[in-house]
């Protein structure tokens, strides 16, 4: 197939995989670069060639092909998915009592990494500098637990599981404390940690935790919550055989992307992708409105 | 850095003294490669644009310098505006296609169970 393609089309449409590196990596189909080609932006042409094929979709994972779009834009979606789709995460940790061996700051950091199941689209961003949260921008969670001896443990037991009560603190021990009308609004969406078996700390009799946490809406520039990668495996085994290596040419279609989206469970992966696309649109709108407001300079 | 209460700038323009309106550097605050590279691609697709490129000023500053030079003294804001609009339309089309395919896929998944 590659042989039938002329040299210029190959540079334009294929990324060539060589034995030790790749060739024609950069997009070059801009107006003025190739005589005889019309490379100006054409929305109709884009709409005709663009396609998405969904390969797999379930609650937490999805895989789809995005074909007919430039790497720059496909990569923008990938970058947004990784770092800019908003989520609810623990931002403030108020420790009233912590007599465990885990230091306050370590404990606070561990709590901050726990994914919280709550639809971020139903919350507002909290204004900077605002200390007090309200029902529209904050979720309050509480972790109150105390470890004690198990009175029913057998005398010569050495198993902490049997000797103590509440000696393992899991994410399931975090309880949601609704603020204002949240109890009614979110009655059927169970707010709390996505997974209930994340170990937070281990206690011994007498140790106690009394913590209140505030979750706010934010973008994961600090905490990533989606894993998204371009699955790309292409064997270059043929290039190891001297007799074959000058006879074959491995090429890859420039504008075909395979997206694999893995959600942490807060939002389904298809919603994450739609949100990511909307984020890029919002970026465009932000500058368009800024251009309009300052007038044509 | 803008102080408390003061509105943070979104977009600034920098022009060399005596340069025409077609050679402008736009400073886009709170942006990075995500918008920079995709917008550069859209603007490069415009025949009126002689040059388009961007740089991230410094890793610890969240802004990009976005340079546009046009042919025939067309004001640089025009290709910028057009590029933003076209990128927005592309996203809209991707979004519509994606949603249609997801609905289709979910529909197909449900059918065998009935």
Keywords:
heterodimer; A: 297 residues; alpha+beta; Gyrase A, domain 2; RNA Polymerase Alpha Subunit, Chain A, domain 2; 2 domains; 4-stranded antiparallel β-sheet; 8 helices; 17 strands; B: 114 residues; 4 strands
Short description:
Chain A is α+β, with helices and mostly antiparallel strands and about 300 residues long. Chain A contains eight helices and 17 strands.
Q: How do the strands and helices of this protein lay out in sequence?
A:
The complex is a heterodimer of chains A (297) and B (114).
Chain A: H1 7-13, E1 14-17, E2 22-23, H2 43-49, E3 51-57, E4 61-67, H3 71-83, E5 86-98, H4 104-112, E6 116-117, E7 138-146, E8 148-149, H5 160-163, E9 164-165, E10 168-170, E11 175-177, H6 182-185, E12 192-193, E13 199-202, E14 208-219, E15 227-230, H7 242-245, E16 250-253, E17 256-262, H8 269-293
Antiparallel strand pairs in A: 1-2, 1-16, 3-4, 4-17, 5-14, 6-12, 7-11, 7-14, 8-9, 10-13, 15-17
Chain B: E1 11-14, E2 23-29, H1 33-44, E3 49-56, E4 63-70, H2 77-110
Antiparallel strand pairs in B: 1-2, 2-4, 3-4
